[in-house]
Every structure is written in C-alpha cells, then in structure tokens.
Design a protein that fits this description.
431 residues, four-stranded mixed sheet, alpha+beta, three-stranded antiparallel sheet, single chain
Length: 431
C-alpha cells in the first residue's frame, strides 16, 4: 500500500493508491441542531434518482435517528466493532504533531489506531483484503426508518424527582443524523473495487461508478464504511449518490445561468435550513487552499465548528456536521472525534462573525463561494449555558451577511435579526 496524508487523522496512513487530488473538492456541512426529520431531502433525492426497478431499497440520502437507528441496520456499530476487534483499544487520539513552523499538523489531534485500510491487512502484508468491511444482509436493508425517534437514557419520572431535560446535556436523548455519500478523499469503495470502476472526478472530487466497467461484485458495498454504495439487481451493477453533478456543473438552464454551480436536490429541498454545500480549492498535497472567505472553509478549517463523521475510518469524508448540543459528549466524540467540545462551545454561544455565517445555511440554491459581513447595531444580550456548564453572555448584533457565487456576483443578502412585517388592522380575513 502507498502512504498518503490524512489531515483528519493528523498523520500519514496506508491506502491502496498513490495521492491524487482534484482541483476543487465537493463538500458540505449539516447542522444537526436544526433538523426536524421531515425527510423532504430524502424524498427529493428518491424522486429524482432512485425511482426505477431494482432501486426500491435505495435511499442515497436518508435521515436516521441516533443512537439506535441506521440504514442499513447497524451500519456503524458493526464496523466499529470489527475495527475494535482488529485493533483492540486502538480508537484513541493523542496530541497533534507539529510542522516545521510549530503549528499542529492535525486540527483534531493524532489518531493512534488503525484505519479500515490498515486493519484490513491484519498483520499480513500479502492480504488480498484491501478494506475492512462487511456485506449487509437483505434484512438489514429492509427498514430505512427503523427505531425512528427512539430515545436513549434511563426511565425517568416524578417518583425520583428527576427531569429528562437538563442542560448542558439531556438525560434522555436522541438526534437525527442526515446522511449521503461523503465523496471521500480516500474512498473505501474506490480502494476495494477490483475492476477500477470507481473514480474521483478531477474537477470537483465527486466519486462516481463507471457502469460499463462495473460487474456487480459488490466489493464497494462491502467496503464503504457509510454503506452508501448499493447493488442494483436489475442491472447487476452498483450505484451511488452522484452529488447531482449536472447541477454542480451549472448545466441546468431551467434553474440558473449556464456555468453557475447549483446545490444538489437534497440540499435545495431542505425545509429546516440545516445544509450548506460548496466547492473548496485544494492544493496538490490534498490540503485545502487557504480561503477564509469561503463559508465552508470558514466553518470547517477556520473555526472547526463542523466535524467529519467517524474520522477514525480513515476515508477523510467531505461531509461535516455541527454536533447536537444536548447529547452526551462521549457518544459524540466517538462519532465526530476529539473536536466536539470546542465545536459545541463555539456553536452554543457564537461570536459576532460566526453567528453571521450561520445565517447562510440554505438561503440560495446557488453555491456560495465567498461571504462578506456588514456590521449592524447591537440588538440583544443573552445569557447562555455552555456544554461545560459555564454561563456566558452572548452579545447579538444585527449584522448583514452577503453571499457571492462562482463569478463573484452577489446572490444573497440576509440579516441576523429576521425582519418582521405587520399586516394592516383590516384585511380580507379580519374578524
């Protein structure tokens, strides 16, 4: 295996292929705290891409209830168990190494355990298995909404005088996890395919399956740690989320001007405004080019308020999540790594700039490449309880944030304080 650098892990790791990175990388951020599990995103994707014969069980986008839900059932628990078995006690994080300038190389520390690529060898250099994984049964694909809104925690009631809602974390809790293909930097599906039918596009890093080369061996289904590669029995090939790449290319004349990248169907349909999507520039090394004016770069790299899902898998996923603030920290750290505490401290009491950028979620179907903030008047002071239990006063300003498209043209302008409009006292519905 080749040695590649994974900035999520803060170290180099083993991967079947040499480093090769796109000019720009498709990425997205989900704010879990805003999701209402309406499944509008799920149905938007389903009605666009997976409504044909053989695709009945395919949900490229889904929203599941954690900690018990999952599609396929137990997709993460089973792989975490296999990774622990191959690497006992190894899913731990240490201090980040420093580069030549003295800055930490990894934003979340250094992962000390084995990834799904390193654990697959199981000590044998000539092992034919490239990726640690498993093939779900038909039963596990059968119920996309299993354990929906099923809470975790002790049984509470008036007898013991306790309460289920307590800050900074709830004693009884669940949360919604929004999922689609992460279009990983080091995809497990690509690594495992014996036909080399899976590839990343040079222009945007979207991971696709070449249907002419695919022979339906289902190695990609077995290897994808997020289980977003799926086998279609009617064509005997695998299929997966394609990131609505015609929209990313700006090739839909009915939706916008030619050449202007647009958000995907699931992003555009989001009712709760939890989603932000974009394209970030990458260096030949795979690192993101310094671009703090890009809202994705700002949230992920600059502020580190959005975190990768299961970074210990080693795929360097390009989907990021703002963690839910009411869930016990130990559970969140297993899912999103050691950056959870810092992310939640910032999100629970955002400063002036972060609060303005958070207004840009789902405000336009045009992908935003840059933002600017115009300062406004002070409008409020609010006392906030942080996840640590400390109290802090948040000062809120009614700033205006502007978003710009790939051409540098302004496409959206929103304020922190939403405007209100009072209807006249007499109108058609007056009583």
């Amino acid at each position: 295996m080749a040695q590649v650098y994974n900035w999520h892990l803060g170290r180099s790791m083993e991967y079947p292929y040499e480093e090769q990175h796109p000019d720009r990388q498709f990425a997205f951020v989900f704010n879990i705290n805003r999701c209402i599990a309406c499944q509008t995103c799920t149905m938007a994707c389903k009605s666009t891409w997976t409504f044909g014969p053989g695709q009945e069980y395919m949900w490229w986008n889904n929203v599941e209830s954690k900690p018990f839900g999952g599609y396929p059932q137990g997709w993460d628990v089973k792989l975490l168990g296999k990774l622990e078995q191959a690497n006992p006690g190894g899913q731990v994080w240490g201090e980040a190494e420093e580069d030549e300038s003295g800055s930490p190389r990894g934003p979340y520390g250094k992962y000390a355990g084995k990834t799904i690529f390193e654990a697959a060898k199981d000590g044998a250099e000539d092992s034919p298995q490239r990726v640690l994984g498993y093939l779900p049964s038909e039963e596990e694909w059968r119920h996309p909404n299993i354990h929906e809104e099923t809470a975790h925690g002790p049984v509470l009631g008036p007898r013991d005088g306790s309460h289920s809602v307590e800050l900074p974390a709830h004693r009884v809790w669940y949360f919604y996890l929004q999922r689609l293909c992460n279009h990983c930097t080091y995809p497990g599906c690509l690594a495992a395919c014996p036909r080399k039918a899976i590839y990343k596009r040079d222009e945007d890093g979207v991971v696709l399956v070449d249907q002419e080369r695919c022979r339906g061996y289902r190695k990609c289904v077995e290897a994808c740690p997020y289980k977003k590669a799926m086998y279609r029995p009617t064509t005997r090939t695998s299929e997966k989320c394609i990131a609505c790449y015609p929209r990313l290319e700006g090739r839909d004349p009915e939706l916008g001007e030619s050449g202007v990248p647009l958000e995907t169907r699931c992003m555009t349909a989001c009712v709760g405004k939890i989603r932000m999507q974009g394209l970030v520039r990458t260096e030949p090394s795979g690192a993101w080019a310094n671009d703090p004016g890009n809202p994705l770069y700002y949230l992920i790299q600059e502020r580190k308020v959005a975190l990768p899902l299961y970074p210990q898998f080693g795929t360097e996923p390009n989907g990021y999540y703002i963690p839910p603030r009411w869930v016990p920290a130990r559970h969140l750290e297993q899912m999103f790594g050691p950056g959870v505490e810092a992310a939640l401290e910032q999100y629970s009491c955002p400063d002036r700039e972060l609060l303005a950028v958070l207004q840009l979620f789902r405000v336009s179907r045009i992908v935003l490449f840059r933002f600017e903030i115009e300062k406004g008047p002070k409008v409020a002071e609010v006392e906030v309880t942080l996840p640590s239990g400390r109290k802090k006063t948040q000062t809120i300003y009614n700033d205006t944030v502007r978003g710009f498209d790939a051409r540098g043209q302004e496409v959206v302008r929103v304020t922190v304080e939403e405007p209100t409009f009072e209807r006249p006292s007499r109108h058609l519905n007056s009583i």
